[in-house]
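Bug report

Summary: structure tokens for Membrane protein differ between web form and batch submission.
Environment: batch mode, default settings.
Steps: 1) Submit the sequence below via batch. 2) Compare with the web form result.

Sequence submitted:
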Amino acid sequence: MKRICLLFMLICIVSSPVWSGNDDDPLCKSIQVQKQKNKIYELLNYIGNISGYYFIYDSKVVDNDKKSRLQAGTYSIRDAIYQVLQSKNYCLRTVDRYILITNIETPSQTKYRSTISKSKDSAAYIEISGSVMERLTKEPVPYCSVNLEGTTLGTITNNNGKFVLRVPDSLFSRRLHVSHIGYESHLIPVAFIEGTPIDVYLNPRIVPLQEVIFRLVNPAKIVKEVLEARNRNYLDKPSYLTTFYREGVERKKEILRLTEAVFKIYKQSYSSSFSSDQVKLLKMRKITSDAVKDSLILRMKAGVEGSLMLDLMRNIPDFLEINERNIYDYTKIDMTEIDSRMAHVISFEQRKEITEPCFRGKLYIDAENSALLCAQLEVHPQYIDKAEELFVVKRGKNVNVHPQQIIYSITYKELNGKYYISHVRGDLFFKMKEKRQLFYTPTHLFFEMVTCKVDTIHVQPFPKDERLPVKKIFSEERFVYDNQFWGDFNVILPEENISKNLSRIASKIEESVE
């Protein structure tokens, strides 16, 4: 169940490039520019629009907000960039449609590759980090997919648009695929950006007019076709998913408890509906604040099980089952782009005569193959008071708790024609107070799980003694602390509010297990 996102399509006018000059060096080609004064970020965008290039750089190297100017005239792309940067003390490299800007003192590729990380008992890997932002507004793009092209290795950006991805050295020649609903995707060679923190700016995807004109379609029929195409679109044999999981409790923007883990999941075939997925715990850590009374900490009810249950293609919810008992109304509201594929945007909401707490939200369905690409859901706010017992267990004595908003997001990714669950996020907002308190306190429970790797070879169920009991409260698991905790596992970077609180709540770092 996930809050409805409004996608605002912003039009940017791209000027036609005027080319001349040395064909061997693309930065020697000439462009004609007009006189302007603006921030460096805006002027680089202007050069990019004219030349057809995207810029990649670390905002610590290039001051985005510094004022600069361009004089009218015809310049090489390189000279126009130097004019904007007000210095030639930068190294400019081009690959495909990208120009990388680094300090001229940046170590050579050869020097950097000698410092590739290597964790104990693991292969060498390269760490790529950066931020993803909306090009026109410079706002961060949260939950943006960051994957290695042609593989299932990847992660997502956090709520602040930041990411880190550890890439095995054997995949050094691949490209980084950065994508999000409603934006143009980017494919950036890993060799181009290794060792350099990058800022990636995404352009809003402008859907062509002919795609926006809605034909006479039945939105319920589009939803029905998702299940009809399920066996064709989704994995038809068991697989292993290596996933990163996080859950926590936040009160007044202070983190009270944070639990993180790496799981190996035995994922049943999507065509099998009789057996449950299995979870094996690989690594785990928990940080709890000693500064708050335990009676005021809500416990996440089966967040791990909830993450598995939100795989909508394995656990079919009622809003995907179109039959005579269906209680939802469906409306087609938009077309958008996801991973360079056109998608229908279908909204749904329970009918007015239904007064139980049901879901409403949006479904993003591939216009060509009917695969469900994304779902954004929430418990209907009009009836949310009736849903309290579904989400909270182990509240303290004499504590009143009332749900305010329950929202979920689910996304799928494609590899070799088959889709797998990529990211699940749940945000549960409550108000709570003890008997003697005068006012309610806002409290936020959250969990998320991202698939970092998929394996389909030699997949076997886990022995019973290795399976994690997913119905239990996960934060109460026992484990042993490990200094080199994450090693080369891919994780979701903590959000800024979590990072700021970690040092304060680390008074009790509980054990972890491997």
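Above is the batch result. After comparison, the two runs are identical; trailing whitespace caused the diff. The chain has nine helices and 28 strands. The longest strand covers residues 399-415.
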